[in-house]
Specification:
By secondary structure, this protein is of the alpha/beta class. It has 12 helices and 13 strands. It has helices at about 10-20, 60-65, 145-150, 160-175, 195-205, 220-230, 245-250, 260-275, 290-305, 330-345, 355-360, 365-370, and strands at about 25, 45-50, 50-55, 70, 80-85, 85-90, 115, 120-125, 180, 210-215, 235, 280-285, 305-310. A 7-stranded mixed beta sheet has the order 7-8-9-10-11-12-13. It has a 4-stranded mixed beta sheet with strand order 1-4-5-6, with helices on one face. The structure holds iron/sulfur cluster (SF4). Iron/sulfur cluster binds near residues 41, 118 and 361.
Length: about 375
């Protein structure tokens, strides 16, 4: 192998390219196990580029055709990225976390209860079923929440005690720094806030770990105080798409909750959790224009909500498995002005206490933020 050279594409550009096109792996076993199915990033593997750990597609259809190839890692875990026979950068693979080797007393592997996302985030889907996943007419077209359950890679309901046990081990053995708790939406009006609340309380009683909880807006804004009091440090309520046109097509069930309800919930939640501690996840590439996404982001930032914009990645086995990912140029046209907007609005991923916006692995947004100073300030 030739000596390693420095990345010759800027980090944010290389991340955009790899997240859009995916990467072919000479050694599919390199690094930590990849995720398939589930409610978060899927068909991905965590890789580190220029100090940033990001999720890159390796198992979906675009990745098999990607122009980017990751060579077999060397002894230190570093791997050259090749395009058209030319080295364009290098990545490294985080190692398999040690807590994956453990099981509960009743024999459930810890990795079926929670998994490592990015570099130092423990992530779990507390309830692996969803009212919206029962029928094709209602299901969010991008979601694979039922697939990992059907394949036996996870369990349906993670109890508070199980989550506390795994969180403690992940902190002690692998140094995880924060935790993401998401959930499929149960039938009740609280939209999952109740199970998130009891789960957060159990984890906090076992270990000092910042937690982000993620759910749809509950029926009653009083849930935000209850979640905060139970130990949740940050909250995510995910729009996924911003225009009614795209929401109705891509997520017909969830689109019954109007965008206006998300905004009234954001307004109620920010005073409870604090500016920048409430966030939303927006999937770019499903049909919203860059202007539509940026217009909604402007309103969110004004409210103190962090809009985490990520490139849509098609997941095998979902109705959108053949839907293309957005181009790197489309992502750049959103993320560059969005990073400026965030920095000027005083919302930086580094200051988020827990969750996707802090982790940043599903987008190059925080890479764009790095080095930007507030308007009139010094970086
Ligand atoms: S950004 Fe969120 S979903 Fe993506 S890897 Fe990080 S914690 Fe997981």
């Amino acid at each position: 192998m030739k000596p390693m050279t420095r990345t010759d594409l800027p980090a944010e550009i290389l991340i955009n390219e790899l997240q859009s096109f995916g990467v072919r792996l000479v050694d599919p076993g390199a690094g930590a196990a990849s995720r398939r199915g589930g409610a978060g990033p899927s068909d991905h593997k965590a890789v580190t580029i220029d100090g940033m750990t990001v999720m890159v597609p390796v198992h979906n259809a675009p990745a098999f055709e990607s122009p980017y190839l990751a060579e077999r890692p060397d002894a230190s875990g570093r791997s050259r990225i090749i395009r058209d026979g030319r080295e364009v950068g290098e990545i490294s693979f985080p190692l398999q976390p040690r807590f994956y080797g453990l099981k509960t007393a009743d024999g459930i592997p810890y990795s079926k209860i929670a998994v490592l996302h990015g570099r130092d985030v423990l992530a779990t889907t507390v309830l692996q079923t969803c009212v919206r996943f029962q029928s094709r007419a209602k299901t969010c077209q991008f979601c694979a929440i039922g697939q990992s359950l059907a394949a036996g890679r996870t369990i349906e309901r993670k109890t508070p005690a199980q989550l506390a046990e795994v969180a403690k081990a992940a902190v002690e053995l692998d140094g995880v720094k924060h935790m993401v708790m998401t959930t499929g939406t149960p039938p009740g009006k609280d939209r999952g806030a109740a199970i998130l609340s009891e789960s957060a309380a159990a984890v906090k009683a076992a270990v000092d770990l910042p937690i982000q909880v993620q759910c749809e807006p509950p029926d009653d804004d009083a849930w935000f105080r209850r979640l905060r009091d139970s130990g949740a440090d940050a909250l995510g309520m995910h729009l996924e798409a911003v225009s009614d046109r795209v929401r109705r097509r891509i997520m017909p069930g969830k689109a019954q909750v109007p965008v206006e309800r998300y905004f009234s919930a954001f307004e109620a939640a920010v005073p409870v959790f604090g500016r920048g501690q409430v966030s939303t996840y927006i999937l770019a590439g499903l049909g919203d224009t860059a202007e539509e996404i940026l217009a909604v982001c402007r309103k969110l930032v004004a409210l103190g909500v962090y809009p985490f914009v990520v490139p849509f990645v098609p997941i095998s086995g979902t109705p959108l498995e053949s839907h293309p990912s957005p181009t790197p140029a489309f992502m750049h046209s959103i993320l560059e002005p969005l990073a400026r907007m965030l920095v000027d609005g005083g919302l930086k991923s580094a200051e988020v206490k827990a969750g996707c916006a802090k982790c940043g692995a599903c987008s190059s947004l925080s890479t764009y933020e790095r080095g930007l100073a507030p308007a009139g300030g010094v970086a």
